[in-house]
């Protein structure tokens, strides 16, 4: 256990950041799953827009690496573009 005031404070800050990061990553994963589960392109587009903005925001903050964000955006965009308006996946 921490003995000095500064170490106690650092532990509190670390714990708070850990909880915030966990919550933010959970929210991001949920949005990615919503894009993946969309049946039509029209349904996926607005969710993709929110997800892309969130990926950029988290990459700027350093929560995820900028290349990781870029790769996720690319794969989600490719998936969304493969959806057809009728709800069937293009082959």
Textual characterization of the structure:
- Helices cover 78% and strands 0% of the residues.
- The chain is mainly alpha-helical.
- It has a single domain (5-82), classed as Up-down Bundle (Methane Monooxygenase Hydroxylase, Chain G, domain 1).
- Helix 2 runs antiparallel to helix 3.
- It is elongated.
- It starts with a helix and ends in a 9-residue tail after the last helix.
- The mean pLDDT is 92.
CATH superfamily: Ribosomal protein S20
Question: Which percent range describes the beta-strand content?
Answer: under 5%
Helical fraction equals over 70%
For the sheet with most strands, the description reads: none
Query: Structural class, from helix and strand content?
Result: mainly alpha
Question: How are the SSEs placed, and which strands pair?
Answer:
Layout: H1 5-37, H2 41-61, H3 66-82
Helix pairs in contact: 1-2, 2-3
Kindly summarize this structure in a few lines.
With 91 residues, the protein is mostly helical. The chain has helices at 5-37, 41-61, 66-82. It contains three helices and no strands.
């Amino acid at each position: 256990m921490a003995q000095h005031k500064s170490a106690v404070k650092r532990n509190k800050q670390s714990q708070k950041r850990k909880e915030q990061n966990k919550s933010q990553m959970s929210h991001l994963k949920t949005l990615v799953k919503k894009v993946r589960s969309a049946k039509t392109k029209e349904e996926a587009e607005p969710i993709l827009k929110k997800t892309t903005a969130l990926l950029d925001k988290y990459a700027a903050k350093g929560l995820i690496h900028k290349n990781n964000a870029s790769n996720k955006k690319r794969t989600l965009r490719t998936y969304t573009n493969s959806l057809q308006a009728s709800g069937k996946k293009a082959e």
